[in-house]
Amino acid sequence: MIRTTILAMACLISITALGQHAKQQRFSPGKIWEDTEGTHINAHGGGMLFHNGTYYWFGEHKTAGRGGNRANVGVRCYSSQDLYNWTNEGVALPVAAEGSGSDIEKGSVIERPKVIYNASTGKFVMWFHLELKGQGYNAARTGVAVSDRPEGPYTFLRSLRPNAGTWPVNFPEPWKSKEVTEADLEAWSPAWRKEVAEGLFIRRDFGTGQMSRDMGLFVDDDGKAYHIHSAEENLTLHISELTDDYLGFTGKWAVMEPAGHNEAPALFKKDGKYYMVTSGCTGWDPNAARSFVADHIMGPWKSLGNPAKGEGASITFDSQSTYVLPVQGKEDAFIFMADRWEPQNAIDGRYVWLPIEFNEGKPELKWHEEWSLDFFDQ
Ligand code: DGJ
């Protein structure tokens, strides 16, 4: 009798405990999203890795207030089996101590971390946008770190500006030796835009490496990986092939949307075609998303316009893209992952996840107050 009573009480206690953080079964875009301990998920500008049956979500650990957009902690990792319920796996890449002089020292800017797995080396490779401490957004570098385990800890290897001394594959010969410089042109004039599109900044940065700000990674079916980044003062996207170990650049790269002013690139593949969702450049404020399609990753890319439809489409439902997640085990199921930034209190930034629909070959995004993965079975 006593044993039965104790058992019943234990059950009651655990049900009550479970009830506090009841399992989530739906996505609620823009709302507080609690992890399994009841804390709002802290993984902004995130990316996803699926490995051995588990999803790993990596993102910027933000802190409170405006200064919370700086890297005060590092890159955080969460894991999940079902995409709704996320376990905090801790800090995957910690910042280095203040005053250490490391590129990733506390107070630098670490944004949009993405992790991919290299099957031949067995290593997990993280790339991220890095701005050096005290230099605003001028450094425009990309950083790389590596780990033996998906959740880390990751070891920082180096940061760089990619593709020094190499020309894009889609860059006409005469543009390489043009002598036009920034000083010759009025910024933002039509003549300036034309020269930007014809390599003004590529030539300027040829020796030192190209700028790299907002970035994403993509691993193709043949195992080749690509680093996609906003370069040339955010005016043009660069798509760069990574070395076989994913730790460096091969020097093969292409320009995409020259002078098109794109940020927040998220690349995915469906039915042999490459798709990319991007945003315009308006700081932390949302703007209209853009979408593109290509038969080859290095282009040419064709614009498909704003994928968002309906009310809120002109500001992408108050969000900015960060990643497109192919849902495992479901055909043609892709989730648009985006951030609703809160620059005044960075830690309160929200996540906007929406299903991608396809209409006449174009990706479409519609607002859903709530939704679940069943959406893809309809
Ligand atoms: C927009 C970018 O997409 C973000 O990652 C961040 O760099 C902000 N700009 C900074 O203003």
Outline of the structure:
With 378 residues, the chain is mainly beta. It has helices at residues 2-20, 190-197, 200-204; strands spanning 44-51, 54-60, 74-80, 87-94, 109-118, 123-131, 141-147, 155-160, 215-219, 225-231, 236-242, 249-256, 263-270, 273-279, 290-294, 301-305, 320-326, 334-340, 350-359, 362-365. Residues 45, 111-112, 214, 263-264, 283-284, 320 line the site of (2R,3S,4R,5S)-2-(hydroxymethyl)piperidine-3,4,5-triol.
Can you name the CATH architecture of the domain at 26-160? 5 Propeller
Strand order within the widest sheet?
A: 1-2-3-4
State the separation between the terminal residues, measured CA to CA: 51 Å
Identify the overall geometry: globular
Task: Please mark out the parts with pLDDT under 50 across 5 or more consecutive residues, or reply none.
Answer: 4-19
Task: Please tell me the overall pLDDT.
Answer: 95
Helix content: under 10%
Structural class: mainly beta
Give the biggest beta sheet. Answer: 4 strands, antiparallel
What's the number of helices? 3
**Strand and helix order:** HEEEEEEEEHHEEEEEEEEEEEE
Ligand catalogue: (2R,3S,4R,5S)-2-(hydroxymethyl)piperidine-3,4,5-triol
User: CATH topology of the domain at 26-160, what is it called?
Assistant: Tachylectin-2, Chain A
Estimate the strand proportion.
Answer: 35-45%
Counted beta strands: 20
CATH H level of the domain at 26-160: which superfamily? Glycosyl hydrolase domain, family 43
CATH class of the domain at 26-160: Mainly Beta
